[in-house]
Design a protein that fits this description.
heterodimer, A: mainly alpha, disordered N terminus, B: mainly alpha, F1FO ATP Synthase
């Protein structure tokens, strides 16, 4: 608000629309357009992924069996939490060697991406504005492309494990015979059910994370607008106090939401991969 | 004018009905959790993880609805559609 607010004050609608615009390589015309890249989401997700991996790696490198430091203790608790969940859901020690670290990476990565929501909504866009970048959305998980890419990654992992555990023939047999039984006249219904299940799992997995983060980001913007309205009119100290109060309450509640959504995404990843190990 | 008032009503309904559903759901789940934790306190940690997982699932639809309703309320997309209509 501060950057362009003084020159030509945008209306509330313009402010929101401007803040919901991605830094894109082109003009997006259709709802699904694979020729356009959202550069801001890509930059922040890759940067946070590298940061998360580096933090975990640096702890693992310096890990001592003696008295651990605070950060090492925190990472150990996290690893034990994820390992315990993976042990309870995926009953195959060999697959767990890949799936448990995958779940840990997913959790840390999504948590970091969600945590970008807690930065002030105008901080990074204004800094980017000084550098000549006019559109910036800093929460990668509030971008449907990123969350659907994550859930598609989980789907591919599930498909790979289906083939790996049951064999290609066994999996195809399950696709046609699974929910209702191995009868020739039930094959089309079974197959349809399986396909619907895969699509529904993937779409809801990605949409849930996106919806939560998008709504949270939007509410932070509305709270920022409240403070902006105070700055523009200069009347109504109540708006300013309300801005501080609402921002504090929502930020505290949002700490719960970002952790919970990262946890839910991790648990569902484990559950879906675990389902790929169940044979019917 | 009509569109603005309808959208305001719709935003209220989206948030209100969503809140009813999510709160009843969370309430039932919380009471069941407390009951089962009182019966078998040794299962408390395991149940707590599952309760939070389900809380995330229940909350999701409500918060998505709230986000959409607030988007309608502030940056009303229907007004732009009306402005673009041929007169």
């Amino acid at each position: 608000m501060a950057a362009e607010g003084t020159a030509n004050a945008p209306t509330a609608g313009e402010y929101i629309v401007h803040h919901l615009h991605h830094l894109q390589t082109g003009k997006q015309t259709a709802v699904v357009d694979f020729s356009v890249l959202n550069l801001d989401s890509l930059f922040w997700s890759i940067a946070l992924g590298v940061l998360g991996c580096w933090a975990l790696w640096s702890v693992a490198r310096k890990a001592t069996s003696g008295v651990p430091g605070r950060f090492q203790a925190a990472v150990e608790m996290l690893v034990e939490l994820v390992d315990g969940q993976a042990r309870g859901i995926v009953h195959n020690a060999n697959s767990r060697k890949l799936v448990a670290p995958l779940a840990l990476t997913v959790f840390v990565w999504i948590f970091l991406m969600n945590a970008m929501d807690l930065l002030p909504v105008d901080l990074l866009p204004v800094v980017a504005g000084w550098l000549g970048i006019h559109y910036q959305r800093v929460v990668p998980t509030a971008d449907l492309s990123i969350t659907m890419a994550l859930s598609l990654g989980v789907l591919i992992t599930c498909l790979v494990y289906n083939v790996k555990i049951k064999g290609a023939g066994g999996w195809v047999h399950e696709l046609f015979a699974a929910p209702f039984g191995d009868k020739w006249f039930l094959y089309p219904v079974n197959f349809l059910m399986q396909i619907i299940e895969f699509i529904a799992k993937t779409v809801s997995h990605g949409m849930r994370l996106f919806g939560n983060m998008y709504a949270g980001e939007l509410i932070f913007m509305l709270i920022a607008l409240m403070g902006g309205a105070f700055a523009l009119t200069g009347t109504g100290i109540a708006l300013f106090l309300g801005h501080i109060f609402a921002g504090t309450v929502w930020a505290i509640f949002h700490i719960l939401i970002i952790t919970l959504q990262a946890f839910v995404f991790m648990m569902l990843t484990l559950v879906y991969v675990g389902q790929a190990h169940d044979s019917h | 004018m009509e569109v603005i008032s309808f959208v305001a009503l719709a935003a209220g309904l989206i948030i209100g009905l969503g809140a009813i559903g999510a709160c009843i759901g969370i309430g039932i789940m919380g009471s069941k959790y407390l009951e089962s934790a009182a019966r078998q306190p040794e299962l408390m940690n395991e149940l707590q993880t599952k309760m939070f997982l389900l809380a995330g699932l229940i909350d999701a639809a409500f918060i998505i609805g709230t986000g959409i309703a607030l988007w309608f309320a502030t940056a009303n997309p229907f007004l732009a559609q009306i402005a673009n209509l041929p007169k």
